[in-house]
Design goal:
The complex is a heterodimer of chains A (312) and B (275).
Chain A: H1 2-6, H2 11-21, H3 26-62, H4 65-70, E1 74-75, E2 82-83, H5 86-117, H6 120-135, H7 138-156, H8 166-189, H9 193-200, H10 206-217, H11 219-235, H12 238-243, H13 261-272, H14 278-307
Antiparallel strand pairs in A: 1-2
Chain B: H1 2-10, H2 12-24, E1 27-38, E2 41-52, E3 56-60, H3 67-74, E4 84-92, E5 95-96, H4 104-110, E6 111-114, H5 125-135, H6 141-154, H7 158-161, H8 174-186, E7 192-196, H9 204-217, E8 222-226, H10 230-236, E9 239-244, E10 247-253, H11 254-259, H12 264-270
Parallel strand pairs in B: 3-8, 3-9, 6-7, 7-8
Antiparallel strand pairs in B: 1-2, 1-4, 4-5, 9-10
The chains are: A mainly alpha (312), B alpha/beta (275).
Chain lengths: 312, 275
């Protein structure tokens, strides 16, 4: 202490001086600001859900909820309108199933190739291309479906309608494929090298190691990626609006015109119905149904990745 | 256990007998003029080593001396590292395994391996053990059940897990996982078992269990073990090779290495002057 007093200044005193001067406590304010920005997304979500719920209630005031789910016809513009959502759900599921048939095998195979077989050089070429594919605006995919895929398919199957489920279904599959490939690849890559070595050391070939050890070890991530991708397929709008047509129906035929939940919302909101009409409120009921579908899918994805998570 | 082993090692009569019998046993591995490079880095320099049947061969040396590299060459796991180049010969049962016409899967079916860190598959205990037999085409449920029991008993873990064979292997402790990995390796009845510092991630009690097992297993298998623990080498091995900077400095029976080393560097290392 004696020594310090003789000096010109004391570091401790300077620190204390600085602390006295400090008026605003940034350490306390910044976290609050950060919390507020994080809360914006929460409030937005709540706002959207409340709007959906309120307008949906108004719709169910005019149309019975039982009719909505049991009626097999969706004819909102008819002189005696009928609001049974089933045809729209069927249309949506047709697109989703076709998309899954295209995207799951291709996406999974791509993921396996990238994580297990591709050289660093090949991976550096393919991954950016996948990202470009994932970044293409969906309206571009829509016209790709209508003006390229549909004509090609019609050359192969002349009975195919101009608007159908097959073509947009395939293109939605192409759209969600990079998502499956990329998320599944992440899941495969995160399987530790030591586990692969354990298999190789038992005399397993590369294929045996991949199929029987790496793939099962990554299954939760893979399943989650598929469910998330299918959730995107359910909510996909532009492709089905452009190439799917606007004929809600219950048939399992994929060659004829359909309408999905999203495509119906686009049709109405682009000017076919005035504010306050039953048709106007119907888009909220359809939107609510769609929201419940995708919410369930997202929760399912979370559940799968938590429930089956492997602890390496 | 520890005490009796030490006494055995110190007894000259048994020591002599060991050397005598060792000279008569058949060779499993004959390494001649082995050189290995990681890119430009010359990691193994002119290695010449023979390993014998039903013996425990220990490889000791400080970190980075090439002991792990060498043991991984014996089942060609080293090929998983990109840019590795080898010259020379490693004969396993009189066939050069470095010859690319030697199918690596065939080699690894004969030569099992236990790794530094336990690496069970994220599957049930049962599935871990039957993985090897299954990929090699054994499908009979009854035989698989028998293999599981026999292998788990062989790895001295049967009593601990027999009531929870279908639970995930990750629920086991580190020491149990390592014995499960040993059982997984025993399940395909290999000829040689390579152990790459199998106890370095384990507590002393688990380590002791593995060491006891090694003694037990050498009746049926030939064991090559890399260890950074010199006492472990002294306790469990018949022969010891001392590696330094990618070279074999000294290789002889364990008693000689630890009681009367030929080379000054070996003596410095085992007396703890470096490494």
């Amino acid at each position: 202490m004696e020594l310090r007093k003789t000096e010109m200044y004391s570091v401790q005193e300077m620190i204390l001086e600085k602390k006295r001067k400090k008026k605003v406590n940034m350490e306390k304010i910044i976290p609050k600001l950060l919390f507020l920005t994080a809360a914006i997304s929460v409030f937005t979500t709540i706002g959207i859900i409340l709007t959906l719920i309120f307008e949906t209630f108004i719709f169910f005031d005019r149309v019975s909820i039982v009719e909505f789910f049991t009626e097999a016809k969706w004819l909102p513009f008819a002189s005696t309108p009928s609001f049974g959502i089933m045809p729209l759900i069927v249309g949506t599921l047709k697109i989703t199933v076709i998309a899954a048939v295209v995207a799951v095998p291709v996406g999974l195979a791509t993921a396996i190739f990238l994580s297990e077989y591709a050289s660093e050089k090949t991976r550096r070429i393919i991954k950016p291309i996948l990202e470009v594919l994932a970044g293409i605006p969906t309206i571009v995919y829509g016209f790709f479906a209508l003006t390229f895929v549909t004509p090609v398919l019609r050359d192969l199957f002349p009975s195919l309608d101009m608007f159908n489920a097959l073509s947009p279904g395939i293109v939605v599959g192409i759209m969600i494929m990079p998502m499956i490939a990329s998320l599944s690849e992440d899941a495969l890559v995160s399987v530790p090298k030591s586990i692969r070595e354990g298999a190789y050391a038992l005399g397993a070939t590369k294929l045996e190691t991949t199929i029987k050890v790496v793939l099962p070890a990554a299954i939760s991530g893979i399943m989650a990626s598929i469910v998330l991708a299918l959730s995107r397929a359910i909510g996909e709008t532009m492709i089905v609006s452009v190439a799917g047509g606007s004929t809600p129906n219950m048939s399992m035929d994929v060659t004829s015109s359909i309408q999905t939940m999203t495509a119906y919302i686009v049709q109405v909101s682009s000017g076919d119905a005035g504010y306050g009409t039953t048709i106007y409120y119907s888009i909220y009921a359809v939107g609510m149904t769609l929201f419940v579908f995708t919410l369930i899918m997202n929760l399912l994805a979370q559940f799968i990745s938590r429930k089956f998570r492997e602890e390496y | 256990m520890n005490m009796t082993l030490t006494r055995e090692k110190e007894s000259p009569a048994i020591g002599v007998e060991n050397v005598g019998s060792a000279a008569l046993t058949e060779k499993v591995y004959e390494t001649s003029n082995l050189n290995l490079w990681y890119g430009e880095n010359h990691a193994l320099k002119n290695i010449n080593l023979d390993m014998h049947q039903n013996e425990v061969t220990a490889i000791i040396g400080p970190s980075g001396c090439g002991k792990s590299t060498y043991i991984k060459t014996l089942n060609r796991m080293i090929e998983l590292v990109p840019d590795v180049k080898t010259t020379g010969q490693i004969k396993y049962r009189n066939r050069n395994i470095l010859d690319q016409s030697y199918k690596v899967e065939d080699l690894r079916t004969q030569v099992g391996m236990v790794f530094q860190k336990p690496n069970p598959f994220p599957k049930s205990i049962y599935e871990n053990v039957v993985y090897g037999p299954k990929i090699h085409g054994i499908k009979n449920k009854k035989i698989l059940d028998e293999i599981v029991e026999k292998s788990l008993k062989g790895a001295a873990i049967w009593d601990e897990v027999k009531d929870r064979l279908h639970e995930n292997a990750y629920g086991l402790s580190g020491g149990q996982q390592q014995r499960l990995c040993l059982a997984r390796c025993l399940a395909i009845e290999p000829d040689v078992i390579l152990m790459d510092e199998p106890t370095s991630a384990l507590d002393p009690i688990s380590t002791l269990k593995i060491e006891e097992l090694v003694q037990e297993l050498k009746k049926d298998f030939s064991i090559i073990i890399v260890t950074h623990n010199m006492q472990q080498a002294a306790r469990i091995s018949d022969r010891t090779a001392f590696f330094l900077n990618g070279e074999v400095i000294e290789y002889s029976d364990t008693n000689t290495i630890f009681s009367n080393p030929n080379d000054k560097r070996t003596e410095d290392y085992i007396t703890g002057r470096f490494g």
